[in-house]
Amino acid sequence: MTTRTDDYQRQHGHSTARDHRLPGQKDRDRVLYTEEFRRLAGITQVLTPTGHAFHNRLTHTLEVAQVARRIAEHLHHTERLGPHPHRAERIDPDVVEAAALIHDLGHPPFGHLGEHELDRLARQAGDPDGFEGNAQSFRIVTRLAGQSSDYPGLNLTRATLNASLKYANLRAPAPDPLDPDAGQQRKQFEKFGAYRDDEAAFAFARAGVTHARATLEAQIMDHADDVAYSTQDLGDFYRSGMLPLHHLTAPATWAAFFEKHKPHFLTGASSAEETRVSVQLREVLLDLDHTPGYDGSHQDLLNIRARISEKIGQFVQVSVNWEDPDGPALVVPDSTRLTITLFKRLIWEYVICHSSVTGERERHRAVITFLFGHTLQTVQAGPSALRGSLLADFVPPLLLDRALQPSGDQAVRLAVDIVASLSDAQAETLYARLNPIQKDPR
Transmembrane residues, as ranges (predicted)? Predict the structure, then answer.
């Protein structure tokens, strides 16, 4: 892989120290040993643990990295033995693994709810870029994480930075609903890879890329994320009793579920095609929950683990279309995409939309709103106010150092960085200390 000279260029130059590691290996190790990576152990994946061993962002990330690496290794090996062995150079398992370790670094407290609230609050406060977890991950490795006093961030290679960009665009303006391209505009408004404040690092990462699509290595990382989330989280909630799969497969119940979520499975299909897909997905559930139901026994645990393992084995069977005009494209079989979508909709319907989770979300929303308002007010009051506040006990040293002369949008971005850097427990503790009279924000 030594021919990827430009891809392995670092934004702030190379160290002169001798190092036996390959560039992607060095990137992977730099991410692994950051405080920001360790913080993921305290960040919600879907639900805050309540007695069940639900995944957190750290365990999820480790599984994404493992799946991503195995896919990359398989594709690299296949291409190396194929008719175009030079293509194998475009798939570096170390780079893919490093990108997977990066992909969730930017998640704020309380999972996606925290992400949506910070976006709303930051835009309301005057920063049009708001907040986006993927953009925050990119910001962490290019600016906020510490590796050396000689440069900001971790000084990763262009290849790894590019592979971490699931969305290879900056934030687009809010879409005009009357514009014929409103759909694409909305996608690029809602999901983007970097803030304008980090545009120089984004330009470095994308230098030399002639198409708008994410790199093949980024596509592998993204697919691994889908695989890990849709299987391991599904297993969590099935074992906790939140997914009544044995009831869902009853013909009438399944028909209602499929009709409700049909737009996510297919668009514009014929009635015959709809029937085929409905039967196919119901068979997936019957196979997954063949006992039926989970009774907590060791045998049932082994059964569900075996089924999930089988699904992962199927989901990683992908290939590459090297002739796509928009650049190399990861090819995921339709049956795999459908099944992953089914698992995601199950989690949405029975977990995320569950009444008990709704109450928890409202409490977390109030915590994020209060903390952002308090942090922004403190930052705007100047460095001495921040250093003398309770926030100083929770703010990473690098963010404290950046709070020299904040004003305007800079203050909003700094407030976002501070709140986003907290773990779930830190957010709860800080809220309780700052708001002692009303510890429960409900």
Answer: none
Residue among 5, 63, 58, 14 nearest 34 (CA): 58
The first and second tokens of residue 404, run together, are 């020299």
DSSP state of 233: I
**What residue spans define the domains of the chain?**
23-216, 241-355, 357-434
With b for 16 or more beta-carbon neighbours within 10 A and e for fewer, the 315-354 pattern comes to: bbebebeeeeeebbbbebeeebebbbbbbbbbbeebbbee
Angle between helices 334-347 and 271-288 (to 10 degrees): 70
Q: Which residues contact 46 (CB under 8 A, 6 or more apart)?
A: 54, 55, 111, 233, 236, 237, 347, 351, 352
Q: Taking a C-beta distance cutoff of 8 angstroms, is the pair 265, 338 a contact? A: yes
Instruction: In whole angstroms, give the CA distance from residue 223 to residue 163.
Output: 12
Give per-residue pLDDT as tens, 187-204.
889 999 999 999 999 999
Q: What is the pLDDT of residue 3?
A: 54
Within 8 A by CB and 6+ apart from 136, the residues are: 105, 106, 107, 108, 420
- Give per-residue pLDDT as tens, 241-279: 777 888 888 999 999 999 999 999 987 778 888 999 999
Residue 149 token pair: 């006093």
For residue 68, give both structure tokens: 């991503």
328/344 Cα distance (integer angstroms): 26
Q: Are 33 and 39 in contact (CB under 8 A)?
A: no
427 within 8 A of 370, measured Cβ to Cβ: no
CA–CA dist 373, 366 (Å, integer): 11
Please report where in the chains the tokens 């709860």 appear, as a residue: 428
Return d(Cα 261, Cα 342) in angstroms, integer. 9
27 and 209 Cβ atoms separated by less than 8 Å: no
Query: So what CATH class is 23-216?
Result: mainly alpha
pLDDT surpassing 50 at residue 2: no
Helix ranges restricted to H, 229-270: 234-239, 245-248, 251-265
Beta-carbon-side half-sphere exposure of residue 122 (alpha carbons within 13 Å): 25
Helices of type H across 244-316: 245-248, 251-265, 271-288, 298-315
